[in-house]
Amino acid sequence: MGKLIRRSFGASLCSIATLLAVGLAGGAGASDTPAAAAPASYPSQPKPAAQAPNILVIMTDDVGFAASSAFGGPIPTPTLDALAARGLRYNNFNTTSMCSPTRAALLTGRNAHSVGFGVISEEASPNPGYNSYIPKSAATFAQVLSRNGYDTAMLGKHHNTPLWEITSVGPYERWPNGLGFGYFYGFLGGATNQFAPTLYENRNAKEIAQDDPSYILDKDLANHAIDWLNMQHGIRPATLFLMYYAPGSAHSPHQAPAEWIARFKGQFDAGWDKAREQSFARQKKMGVIPANAALTPRPDAIPAWSSLSADQKRVYTRMMEVYAAQLAYCDHEIGRIIDQLKQNGQFDNTLIVFIEGDNGGSLEGSPQGTIDEVARGKNHMPDDLQDQLAHLDDFGTRYSWNNYPAGWAWAMNTPFQWGKAVASHLGGVRNGMVMSWPGHLQGEGQVRQQFAHVTDIAPTLYEAAGITPPAHVDGVEQQPLAGHSLTYSFAAANAPTQHPSQYFELRDNIAYYDHGWLASTKPRVLPWDKEAPPASGVPVQWELYDLDHDFSQSHDLAKANPRKLEELKAAYARTAERYGVGLPEHQARVPWPFIANGQKHFVFRNSAHRYSRYGFPSIMNRSWVLTADIVVPQGSADGAIISQGGRLCGWGLMIENGKPVFRYNASIEERDHSAITGAAPLAPGAHRITVEFAYEGSERGAGATVRITADGNPIASGRVPRTPGYLFVSEGGVSIGRDYGTTLSDAAPGPFVYPGVINAVTLDFP
After folding, report:
1. Which of 30, 208, 240, 731 could pair covalently with 193 via S-S, beta carbons 3.0-4.6 A apart?
2. pLDDT over 80 (residue 7)
3. What mean pLDDT, rounded, does the chain reach?
4. Coil, strand, or helix at residue 133?
5. DSSP string, 208-261
């Protein structure tokens, strides 16, 4: 009966629809001419302008102006060289001197402080210019282009998500997918291990094959980029694409395939002073710097190469060989992407913007360099020359987080002063850029000298694509763009800059550019001395440069032209107020709003899912109790119950040779590796293992006493002499039932998966 009713009801609907159609068509009378009805259609997708190009934006990491051969440097970059030979080199292109701020300005076309990134995300504060929130009033170029018919993808480093939002439950608005990229494959944060990266594919944690000895991130990123391009081209060959490719190279850890490192053996034996002189000569010969440019002197804080001991030279040369290999290999992998565009017939209609570095070469390794930058720079556990000699064979491998000495960074920033994080000087903010767009750029291989800024890229993409920047996006009124399109320079080598003034500010290092003049503050805190000023008590000393006649910022004119200096200082003050630049000198620290804040009891279950270090409660600088309810199987029962971090810095509860083992690695050094082991193997069956971690004192990075019980019975105790006070490495994250990445011990290669049952792992704080 029900079927009959439904069938009759359906037939009635069809009859009614037919009658309505007849009535609508001829209800006015049989002799009337029927009105033409518009055919039914689905909502249409937007289409780019007819002459719009595909777009590929490439940005490498921590690469100084003089690192690549395309800008006179010692490291061969044939991919960038080839693009420059048929495109345009920009020798007056400027960034912000740091990762997150540069990337935020690149994506949005607004100044970094306007979009919450006056500092890197790890230094965020509640002030609007520094809170690490890209506001909805500053749509990214991915959001704008996707709304104009582009397919969009991002691969590599995304350093523009607030730390407390990097969790497996979001929120996702400031992840790449939420910022307009239809596809994302890469990592969130400042850096990751090339051999054991913490990766995401869209919103999901992605594990790499643990048994692939050839794995390295740069190759993996290029593979995924090529796969996406081919997929997109196969499905919608008539639709344009935007790809933002942002590899982590050459940020520390400096790592590369062993055979690539071997290629550079002995090439830097002459040291950084000679390397700088040689790059300077090449730059003049190539015409990438003016003939009258001066080579700025070495800062007093960086030692002369000739003053170093034989052991120092041995270590520091090896560090530079690894860095060179990483950048060269990265360029090689980018070349594979360019080759794929050519094979697909897309290269000629692709605008490529290749920015070699998001800031100058990194000074963060200190004048001595480091084998473990996380320990030295973040957790205040410096290594010395003897440590470095002992780990010489580890440089460039998965078991080192090395960064080269500041002297090499200085050489890679030739001919400028200083480097990364020093926003007041060109060594920190000047990066080489190449544009390629066959048939649209006049003067193949020429150098463009107009002052340009990273905020200029988004307007350039919009104009090339025939897009008027939207006044509203998703109903939100948009901030004005701070940048200016560079398309005027495509055909006019001598056209005046359309970006006549620009401020710079980061960690109390300040500069203001206006029509060729640059007012700069002398660095008050060096990057390796203190990571995040304010530089309280250090007086401000201003310098003045005429960059139209002094390309390298070498002649301080502050005393000769005090009136111009005061004029620029006043202009900076007005601009700083306009953009919300500057933190209060004694701002009270407001805790970051992590989801775990205030909670004292956490329960985790066995899972292949990896928690990010920010989606797990912090155990640093405090006491805690870990309880694991497990069932030991018959036979082999070894594996990780819980692990965080990895070989360089991490901790975990393991079952090894059947015994409970608590491991704690405070740094790369064996002296900082603790293993507290139970006396006897656990019998098959259910057990409750408890680890009591009693933190000593109130200072960051102190030691702790550890007591382990099994089923209420004491089985081991010991002491951890010191702990990381600020940061665990990103590799590995936090895992229940396995140890990923570099793993905590050689005795447990990854993934060290527990074969028994883990009912629950509970973490409690007093």
Report:
1. 731
2. no
3. 92
4. coil
5. PPTT-TT--HHHHHHHHHHHHHHHHHHH-TTS-EEEEEE--TTSSS-B--HHHH
